[in-house]
Write a structure and sequence with these properties.
Length: 208
C-alpha cells in the first residue's frame, strides 16, 4: 500500500473482530511511532501495550466512574443520561483485542526554560510555544495509525478517555513522570465507515 492510499483509507474504527494481533505487528507499529519528528529529538513518548481484558475492564470502569462524577457537575445541567451516553465513545479501546496507551513526559527546550522564569499565563505560553512536546507525540500517533492501516488493521485515536487519565495512569503503573495523551485500539476492523467528506485543497490552501 502506498502512503497516500494509507492516508486516504485510514478510518476511525469502533468495532473489531476478535482476532489477535501478533507481537511482531505491534512492534512494527510502535517502531513507526518512534521515527516521528520530535523537538530537539527528545522523543517524549512511551507506549504501553494492553492485552489483558481485566486491565481493560478496570480502565473502562475508571472512565465510567469519572463520567458519573461529571454528570453531577453544574455544567452538566442535570443531563446525566447525555453524559453517560459518552461512555461508549470514550471507551472504544475495549472493543479491540489490544490497546496501546500513549504517554508523554515533560518536554523542556531552552526556550521553555526562559519562559518558565517569566510570569506568563498558560494561554500566553501556548501562544509562544503551542505545546511542541505534545505535537511531537501527536506525530508519533499518526505514524502508528498509518502503519496499522498499511498492515490491514483498524485503529482509533482515542482521547475521550483522558477525563479519567489520572486513574488510568495508576492502573497502568505509568509512573509520576508520564501522562496519558491517547489510547489507540488496534485490531481487524469489523465495520469500516464510509469516507467522510473532506474540504477540497483549494478551500484550505493559500499561496502567497
Amino acid at each position: 500500500m502506498e502512503l497516500m492510499e494509507a492516508i486516504r483509507t485510514r478510518r476511525s474504527i469502533r468495532e473489531y473482530e476478535n482476532t489477535a494481533v501478533p507481537e511482531a505487528d505491534l512492534r512494527r507499529i510502535i517502531e513507526a511511532a518512534t521515527w516521528a519528528p520530535s523537538g530537539f529529538n527528545k522523543q517524549p513518548w512511551k507506549f504501553i501495550v494492553i492485552r489483558e481484558r481485566a486491565v481493560i475492564e478496570r480502565m473502562v470502569a475508571e472512565v465510567r466512574t469519572k463520567l458519573e462524577e461529571i454528570a453531577k457537575w453544574p455544567g452538566a445541567g442535570g443531563n446525566e443520561k447525555g453524559v453517560m451516553a459518552m461512555l461508549k465513545g470514550f471507551t472504544v479501546f475495549k472493543e479491540a483485542p489490544v490497546a496501546i496507551a500513549v504517554l508523554t513526559c515533560e518536554y523542556v527546550a531552552p526556550m521553555d526554560k526562559i519562559l518558565a522564569k517569566e510570569n506568563f499565563s498558560f494561554e500566553e505560553k501556548f501562544r509562544l510555544r503551542a505545546l511542541p512536546g505534545l505535537q511531537s507525540v501527536a506525530a508519533a500517533i499518526q505514524n502508528m495509525l498509518l502503519t496499522a492501516t498499511e498492515m490491514g488493521y483498524g485503529t482509533c485515536w482515542g482521547t475521550g478517555c483522558l477525563i479519567a487519565s489520572e486513574g488510568i495512569e495508576k492502573i497502568l503503573k505509568a509512573g509520576d513522570d508520564w501522562h496519558l495523551v491517547a489510547i489507540v485500539p488496534v485490531g481487524v476492523a469489523k465495520v469500516t465507515p464510509k469516507p467522510p467528506k473532506r474540504k477540497v485543497v483549494d478551500a484550505v490552501m493559500e499561496i502567497r
